[in-house]
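During the reporting period the student researcher (J.K.) took over the structure-prediction task from the postdoctoral fellow and processed the backlog of single-chain submissions. One of the processed entries is reproduced below for the supervisory committee.
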Amino acid sequence: MTKDKNFIGSQIKKALKEKGHSAIWLAEEIHCKRRNVYDIFHRDSLDTAQLLKISLALKTNFFVYFYEIYEKMMYKTKYVTRKIHYIPQDEIHIGSLIKNKLEENEHTVNWLAEKIHCKRSNLYHIFNNRSSMDTARLLQISIVLQTNFFVYYCELYKNIISERLSPSVQSKYQRSVGQI
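J.K. obtained the following structure tokens:
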């Protein structure tokens, strides 16, 4: 994905240090154990829901990094990024968005499974059950479908931070991440 094996983990660790917070503080903010935070520092990919919690806690949109990686990769291969017409306001069901894009492009599940080297059953699981997924897998799917799915998470992050969401949705994120 990038030259730095622990790319997203190192970005999180750097932001944490710049903001003057500790791993213990982040663990409390995202409701996990301290050792999990140290594990995150060594990761090159995270679940999108977990990355959203971390982004909100540190007030740093980490999805922008994946968005930019996608754009650079597509620019190098001379693909044109297709515009995304729908930006969700409060929640993302990434599986549905991927399935819709696959159908819009008139590709089959078999085609996508072959391109990303996974089983069809894994894709059906993503389509039907996923409101969150691994960032490395999402980057891979974004490249194959020539659609930067990270734009949805960037927009969701901005909506949460700017409090453009309804009070009930805003409180959902406040409960899951602490006070925004």
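The committee noted the following: The mean pLDDT is 83.
J.K. will present the remaining backlog at the next meeting.
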